[in-house]
Amino acid sequence: MNDSTPLRFGRLLLTGAAGHLGREMRPRLKAFCDTLRVSDVAASLAPAGPGEERVVCDLADRAAVLSLLEGVDAVVHLGGVSTEQTWEAIRGANIDGAVHLYEAARRTGVRRIVFASSNHVTGFYRQDEVVSPRDPVRPDGFYGLSKAFGENLAQLYFDRFGLETVSVRIGSAFAAPKDRRMLATWMSFDDTERLFMAALTAPVVGHSVIYGLSDNRTAWWDNTPARHLGYRPQDSSDAFRAEVEARQPVLDREDPAVLHQGGAFVRTGPFFEEA
Fold first, then answer.
1. Which terminus of the chain, N or C, has less C-beta within 10 A?
2. What 8-state DSSP symbol labels residue 96?
3. Which residues are identified as catalytic?
4. What are the phi and psi torsion angles at 15 (to 5°)?
5. What global pTM score does this model have?
6. Cβ–Cβ < 8 Å for 248, 63
7. Residue 3 lies in a domain
8. Nearest 5°: phi and psi at 168?
9. Quick check: is 274 in a domain?
10. What is the mean pLDDT of each run of 10 residues along the chain (275 residues)?
């Protein structure tokens, strides 16, 4: 691994570039590198623009992922299934694909990965608890479980090979919070950019875990153990609070989705495809 961390990169790789967050981050990341390589399994991935390279790649294809990582300085890994699905749907991209990505990164000399983990790694904590990255995981489904696997994989590749990762447990990255849960979990797109760039450019990260949220008045996550990354959110869900509470004035406190931090993910199923 190179012993210096640049503020601008030669070539960055963005996986999952055709997804909701990938589309938003694509032009933002381009400003911090000479070449942005964008990748997704979806053929709907937009054509390459100036200073971009476009690669359609299935993360479950080990050889294709190895080729994808060639010549890359660092990776923002948003690729994979991002909702609760059956195990069969999640396994290829989120389990096998993560292993393929990390092994390819090791072989090609990538310095750092920003791994899109999820708040659903700890989704079965209650909403009256405050959780830090040092607390035990409590996944709320196979999606959260796959992200917990990804975090453990990142730790293994740092301990064995020195490959640094920042695992970002993304809350709710949208233009605006959609419901009262998101008043606690919301992260603006501008703050998402700030967090990703802090993760890419902090001098030393090892394997760090941080929750991705804005400076919301209501918060279930304590990022004190990740202060070394230098992330300082500048936006807040409070600007949307009156509108959101008027739209959702009553909550059913018998609903597990209201009690737990993972929201609706705690009751999403089925887990397996029916035979």
1. C
2. I
3. 143
4. -90, 160
5. 0.94
6. no
7. no
8. -100, 110
9. no
10. 68 97 97 97 92 96 98 97 91 96 98 97 97 97 97 98 98 97 98 98 97 98 97 98 94 92 85 55
